[in-house]
Amino acid sequence: MIDARAGFESRSWTSHYSGSKASFQGCHSKGNGPHKNTVAISMWENVPFWPDHRIGAPAVLSECFKNDSSWSSFSRDIPEGTSVYLRVDQVNGEAKGDTVSIYSIVVSS
User: Fold this and answer.
1) Strand, helix or coil for residue 64
2) Strands (E), the chain
3) How confident is the model at residue 88 (pLDDT cuts 50, 70, 90)?
4) With a threshold of 0.85, does the pTM exceed it?
5) What are phi and psi of 49, to 5 degrees?
């Protein structure tokens, strides 16, 4: 993911077990927000024909900014067979303007 702003949504996937974990490696941000080198990411349930549903609170990640081999992770309990996706909520504490690039995103479900 390169130069994503708040509001960016990932491709969706279907959970094969009860829960999903998202891990991020090699994060870099651009901008001057008040919380430099952080990204708030939430997991959403893809609900056909209705508004999508956020699963839990957004996770604020910072560990992956330390160096290119550092990882940040978070997980959510979700029912098996649920279609979910990730959404960038804030970059550097800002809901617009700042961007984030992430070298690797691994989802396990």
Assistant:
1) helix
2) 13-14, 20-30, 39-45, 53-61, 71-76, 83-91, 99-108
3) very high
4) yes
5) 70, 10
Q: Is residue 46 predicted with pLDDT exceeding 90?
A: yes
Q: How far is it, in rounded angstroms, from Cα 90 to Cα 57?
A: 13
Q: Which residues contact 4 (CB under 8 A, 6 or more apart)?
A: 88, 91, 99, 100, 101, 102
Q: Annotate 18-55 with b (16+ C-beta within 10 A) or e (fewer).
A: eebebbbbbbebeeebebebbbbbbbbbeeeeeebeee
Half-sphere exposure of residue 95: CA atoms within 13 angstroms, side-chain side: 1
Distance, CA of 109 to chain centre: 15
Q: Using the structure block, give the residue that is written with the tokens 């959403």.
A: 44
